[in-house]
Design goal:
This protein has 188 residues and is mainly alpha-helical. The chain has 10 helices and 2 strands, in the order ββαααααααααα. Helix 2 runs antiparallel to helix 7 and helix 2 crosses helix 10.
């Protein structure tokens, strides 16, 4: 599946966006749409970090578990998590139980708190060129761009972890900083 595919509902979608019901809903209603607000962006950074090395559908299917475990990704609350919370999270079957990623999420909440409401501005200052040609196939979609490399560097400079250029680009795609819906996709 490299180009847009015709779904059972008659709509053309990016190939991955029609491969499972969870993906279809996410593709059609969320992926690539602008996300603003520090808490919403902190959630997306956290989920993208947990996704590293895994399939995105694994994260989607545990999203509500992540929200419950990380108190709806409220920055101030997660920033106060301590050792007991780490152990609670390591025992929580509703999330991905990876100590390094859990510790990174807590560290990232602390870093976001230090930005004092500027996470949204920091992330959006790295938005891609809105006039970039639409990709025609999935092969036309990059994994890393100069903007994602710069965003990852800026986030790391501010204390964020698990935010390399590939993860930063996935964040940019998911949150609408770039539009990587294929040219023939109905969501473009």
């Amino acid at each position: 599946m490299t180009g847009a595919v015709l779904g059972a509902d008659g709509l053309l979608r990016c190939g991955w966006g029609d491969s499972a019901d969870d993906y279809r809903v996410y593709h059609d209603t969320e992926w690539g749409r602008p996300v603003h607000g520090d808490q919403a962006l902190f959630e997306r950074i956290s989920l993208e970090a947990f996704q590293s090395g895994l399939s995105w559908i694994t994260i989607l299917r545990r999203r509500e578990g992540f929200r419950a475990a990380f108190r709806d990704f409220t920055i101030e609350e997660v920033a106060e998590f301590g050792d007991a919370d780490v152990e609670r999270l390591m025992a929580d079957t509703g999330i991905i139980r990876n100590r390094a990623k859990i510790l990174a999420t807590i560290a990232n909440a602390r870093a976001a708190r230090e930005l004092a409401g500027e996470l949204d501005a920091l992330i959006w200052s790295h938005a891609g060129d809105p006039d970039r040609p639409a990709p025609r196939t999935l092969a036309d979609v990059p994994a890393v761009t100069p903007e994602s490399t710069a965003l990852a560097r800026e986030l790391k400079k501010n204390g964020f972890r698990f935010v390399g250029p590939t993860t930063a680009y996935a964040l940019m795609q998911a949150c609408g900083l770039v539009n990587d819906h294929l040219a023939d996709c109905h969501a473009r």
